[in-house]
Amino acid sequence: MIRTHGGLPGLRDEQLLESALARPHQRFAYDETCDLAALTAAYGYGLCADHPYRDGNKRVAFVVMDVFAGLNGLEIEAPEADVVRVMLALASGDLTEEQLAEWLHSSLLERGTAESD
Q1: What would the pLDDT profile of 52-95 be if each residue is shown by its tens digit?
Q2: Which terminal Cβ of the chain has fewer Cβ within 10 Å, N or C?
Q3: pTM, rounded to two decimals
Q4: 4 inside domain
Q5: 99 in helix, strand or coil?
Q6: What residues have CB less than 8 Å from 55, skipping those under 6 apart?
Q7: H helix and E strand count, the chain
Q8: What's 67's DSSP letter?
Q9: Which class for 36: exposed (0-12), middle (13-18), buried (19 or more C-beta within 10 A)?
């Protein structure tokens, strides 16, 4: 992504990366009400809020959410402008993890049912 979109390469803090990646595991283990949207949001929120990379944290957060959704038979179907708005709001602290999960509830579709297919 750095080669394609630019930015500073490198990990800023390995412990913050580990913390962000552990967040959905913790959520799954201790929150009986969580679903795939909540787990996907936990990845995005953790990576965006913890800023483990020197650059590209919002991009990484979105790609990880998209990959996690895909591994679970879902895909994020949203206009690029909405994705940018959501990720900027998440990074600035104007969007909570729960609000991100709500957005994902309306944006996650089963793979193959998105309009682009």
Answers
A1: 766 678 888 999 999 999 999 999 999 999 999 999 999 999 99
A2: C
A3: 0.82
A4: no
A5: helix
A6: 2, 7, 8, 9
A7: 6, 2
A8: H
A9: middle
Please report whether residue 6 resides in a domain. Answer: no
The gap from C-alpha 100 to its chain's centroid, in whole angstroms, comes to 9
Pull the structure tokens for residue 25: 């595991």
The three-class DSSP label of residue 11 is strand
Look up residue 94 and give its two tokens: 């104007």
Structural domain boundaries, residue 65: 11-110
CATH of the domain at 67: 1.20.120.1870
Burial class (CB in 10 A: 0-12, 13-18, 19+), 113: exposed
Residue 91 lies in a domain: yes
Name the percent of the chain lying above pLDDT 90: 54
Interhelix angle 36-50/57-71, nearest 10 degrees: 160
